[in-house]
Write a structure and sequence with these properties.
144 residues, 72% helix, mainly alpha
Length: 144
């Protein structure tokens, strides 16, 4: 799976981009793990770290959007909530996959690979990039 960072994804040249790159890196590392059950612990560690990084990032992003009076803040917050619920579902499925479950680790991992890549790219492209002009306007007004 091709899951590369592109310069077009940059939003603020600062904390939001750093957070996005950290999320991207964790997802890329997760996606690149083998589907063999021996990698379950590594997968769960990456997902747990992704959850912590995403939770922190969403707080940063929401504070910034509030500060610049971003008009779609409420919808953006709702998207963050849904993304975290999806991530929690993936973690739960990953933890329960295997013996005694109808799903193998490999099956859950493969489905999660696609979902996480989509989750990240869809949110950054369709929601986060819309923030960029508002950030640029706020920076210009601060300089004036």
């Amino acid at each position: 799976m091709k899951f590369a960072w592109r310069a077009e994804m940059n939003i603020d040249g600062n904390i939001l981009d750093k957070d996005h790159r950290a999320q991207h890196d964790l997802i890329r590392r997760f996606v690149n793990l083998p589907t063999d059950d021996l990698w379950r612990d590594d997968a769960l560690k990456l997902l747990t770290e992704l959850r912590a990084v995403s939770d922190r990032h969403f707080l940063h992003e929401e504070m910034i959007m509030d500060r610049i009076r971003y008009p779609q803040l409420a919808e953006h917050k709702a998207q963050h909530k849904r993304l975290m619920e999806s991530l929690d579902d993936i973690i739960g499925q990953m933890e329960s996959a295997g013996p005694g479950s109808p799903f193998t680790f490999g099956y859950v991992k493969t489905k999660s690979d696609d979902l996480l890549a989509f989750w990240f790219l869809d949110h950054v492209v369709k929601a986060d990039l819309r923030i960029k002009p508002f950030l640029e306007k706020a920076k210009a007004m601060a300089k004036a």
